[in-house]
Write a structure and sequence with these properties.
The protein is built from 7 helices and 4 strands. It is α/β, with parallel strands linked by helices. It has a single domain, classed as 3-Layer(aba) Sandwich (Rossmann fold), CATH 3.40.50. The N and C termini lie far apart (35 Å). The protein binds iron/sulfur cluster.
């Protein structure tokens, strides 16, 4: 089906025990970074963690996802909202794009409002306007992800 897109998700290893509840809900509802798929069928063909700082699994996991047909890799919202946010986020994005020629989207589910409030106070995202854009959504939606 031409309107189907296959994706993989890579989460921050700090949340490696995460069951993926927020990501999968957002994927189902096409919220946050998944809103780009509003008119598409989406199949999740890979889900893993980065392997822990400095993110050794980033070197290999996208290859498996690509073999499963993934066209887009999502770096999960946890990399953006964790304390501190992942310092290698843009390196991961650039590496996956360059080595595997896959599209990379930063983020999965909407930023939870409680994380949003703390990072705004901290000024964490001062130069991250573009980075947080796909998961910023609006307050009403962010509250649903607390
Ligand atoms: S901060 Fe970055 S490198 Fe460290 S565990 Fe999280 S995603 Fe991996």
């Amino acid at each position: 089906m031409s309107d189907e897109i296959l994706i993989g998700i890579i989460i921050c290893d700090r949340y490696r025990a995460c069951g993926g509840g927020k990501c999968l809900r957002a994927l189902h509802n096409r919220e946050g970074a998944f809103s780009i798929y509003k008119d598409k069928e989406v199949k999740l063909v890979g889900y893993t963690a980065c392997g822990g700082c400095p993110g050794g699994n980033i070197e290999y996991a996208p290859e498996e996802m690509k073999k499963n047909g993934a066209k887009v890799i999502h770096l999960a919202t946890g990399l953006v909202v964790g304390y501190p946010p992942c310092p290698r986020l843009t390196q991961f994005r650039d590496f996956i794009r360059t080595k595997y020629e896959l599209e990379v989207v930063i983020g999965t589910h909407p930023i939870p409002q409680n994380y949003y409030k703390v990072h705004k106070k901290l000024g964490t995202w001062v130069r991250w306007d573009k980075i947080i854009q796909p998961t910023l959504t609006d307050e009403e939606t962010r509250l649903l992800y607390d």
